[in-house]
């Protein structure tokens, strides 16, 4: 009898985890961009601003490189310089579309089968900068640019997006890009 109860509880937990791995919750008010073109989004992006998080803590010169996988998913290579260790750290993951491919709503995994939300909430019409948030923008907020230098106009746009999402703008860390890497 104890075995059956244990098996049932284990099955329920496993199904719950599988469901969590496939879904991505989004905080109210987050609206991903429409008319998104993944092909134009591919390539290298410099992270110019973020809310500090455990997986990038203390890092500078952070970048994200996106390329298309054969199966239609997007390969994600995040890299940054860790001054405490004196070296570049890199994480490789995979992104999948949550909705249709023309909506900037993706989920990203660096540890399958677990995915986190990746919503592009603002995007330059020429794909030169983007504002990206996770399920909770007060914990996951990024300012990406094709250029390694933060312009005042992009900073103002990022602060406006933060305000619109009720993000505490004082938590945004403006990332140094002094060690330009190819």
Question: What features would you describe in this structure?
Answer:
This protein has 182 residues and is α+β, with helices and mostly antiparallel strands. The protein has one domain (32-174): Calycin beta-barrel core domain (Lipocalin). It has three helices and nine strands. The chain has helices at 2-22, 38-41, 152-164; strands spanning 43-51, 60-68, 74-82, 87-97, 105-111, 114-123, 129-133, 141-145, 172-174. The chain has an eight-stranded antiparallel β-barrel with strand order 1-2-3-4-5-6-7-8. The N and C termini lie far apart (62 Å). The model is unreliable at 1-23 (pLDDT under 50).
Summarize the structure.
This protein is of the alpha+beta class. 21% of the residues lie in helices and 37% in strands.
Quick tags:
Lipocalin, alpha+beta, 9 strands, 3 helices, globular, cell outer membrane, lipid binding, 21% helix, disordered N terminus, eight-stranded antiparallel barrel, 182 residues
């Amino acid at each position: 009898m104890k075995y059956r109860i244990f098996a049932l509880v284990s099955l329920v937990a496993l199904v719950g985890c599988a469901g969590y791995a496939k879904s991505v919750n989004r905080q109210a008010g987050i609206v991903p961009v429409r008319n998104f073109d993944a092909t134009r989004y591919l390539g290298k992006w410099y992270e110019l601003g973020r809310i500090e998080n455990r997986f990038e803590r203390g890092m500078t010169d952070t970048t994200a490189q996106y390329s298309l996988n054969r199966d239609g998913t997007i390969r994600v290579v995040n890299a940054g310089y860790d001054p405490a260790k004196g070296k570049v750290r890199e994480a490789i993951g995979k992104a999948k579309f949550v909705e249709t491919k023309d909506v900037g709503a993706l989920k990203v995994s660096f540890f399958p089968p677990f995915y986190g939300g990746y919503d592009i909430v603002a995007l330059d019409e020429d794909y030169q900068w983007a504002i990206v948030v996770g399920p909770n923008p007060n914990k996951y907020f990024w300012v990406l640019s094709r250029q390694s230098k933060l312009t005042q106009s992009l900073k103002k746009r990022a602060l406006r997006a933060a305000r619109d999402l009720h993000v505490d703008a004082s938590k945004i860390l403006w990332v140094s890009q002094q060690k330009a890497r190819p």
